[in-house]
Amino acid sequence: MSRIAYVNGRFAPHRDAAVHIEDRGYQFADAVYEVIAIQNGRFVDEEPHLDRLDRSLGELRLAPPVARPALKHILRETVRRNRVRDGIVYMQVSRGVARRDHAFPAHRNSSLVVTARTTKPKSAAKSGGVTVVTTEDIRWKRCDIKTVGLLPNVLAKQMAAEAGAYEAWLIGADGAITECTSANAWIVTRGRDVVTQSPTHAILNGITRRTVRAIAEEAGYRVVERSFTLDEALAAAEAFLTSTTSHVMPVVRIDGRPVGDGRPGPLTGALQEKYEAHAGMAPGDGA
Ligand code: PDD
Q: Shortest CA distance to 159 belongs to which of 170, 150, 151, 168?
């Protein structure tokens, strides 16, 4: 089946879909994005994702390309035309097309691109957990804004891929682990505290992170938002990462050293199960 993309008011075959060469997203990474999971035909945590999109737009003074009801319609139509039941919908808003000049253009004609595709949940395919490597976090000071300026993330993810790892955990200037290249990082201490970095400007405040936090607290676990170091992660009972596409993913090795007994931990497993129920996955989906 051929894929269809939405670009600035039109649906077009994916292979022909294009933005102008002077789109500011292309020239300056002057653009923000969101990724929402579709599970059994349902959007997972749609409103929080759209709220975060609004926040990213506001922080960069980007004009919303369409009002929320229209955006929701476009997202649904893109998902429908691509026949996605389980997968993701991607949306990107840039400051539009203008002659190259760093300062904002006079117009407020943002560009909107939406794509959708079928994917398998990664957590089911990686039931033994994943390995990660660490590297310096060389990103800017506003990682809370979900911009397409992802070059440091790309370089770190490539480093991880070349090392045979699933993700890179990024280490900030203070020696604390901030997050992963495209997910949030968590540990479970030997005292059973569930720990993740607080939502400062140093990380993206993941929607999955927020949902997992609520799920963990509801289940009676103590969630602590604070910095933690690599040494603390290596001494932890369990580790995992969270994102829209990875859900709750157990981390079993960091820089080649085992976390806990080197197998997915029980508390992580419990959170994974609860998150997948929240996301509307039937037990065994994607396995
Ligand atoms: N990435 N941190 C970073 C740097 C991310 O890029 C992401 C998501 C997350 C997790 O956020 P959420 O739980 O809202 O997906 C944390 C998306 C999936 C991506 O870039 O494809």
A: 168
pLDDT digits (tens, 9 = 90+) for 79-93: 999 999 999 999 999
Chain segment 40-61, per-residue pLDDT in tens: 999 999 999 999 999 999 999 9
254 and 143, same domain (yes or no): yes
Is residue 72 within 8 Å of residue 51, measured between CB atoms?
A: no
| Domains: count for the chain | 2
Mutate to test the pocket of ligand 1, among 32, 33, 34, 35 (most ligand atoms within 8 A of CB): 35
pTM over 0.85: yes
Q: How far is it, in rounded angstroms, from Cα 277 to Cα 79?
A: 22
Written as six digits, the tokens of 145 are 């804004």
Domain check: are 112 and 192 in the same one? no
Together in a domain, 131 and 265: yes
Residues 6+ apart with CB under 8 A from 191: none
Closest Cα to atom 11 of ligand 1: 206
Active site residues: 146
Is 189 inside any structural domain?
yes
- Asked if the structure places residue 285 within a domain, the reply is no
Cα gap 285→287, rounded to integer Å = 6
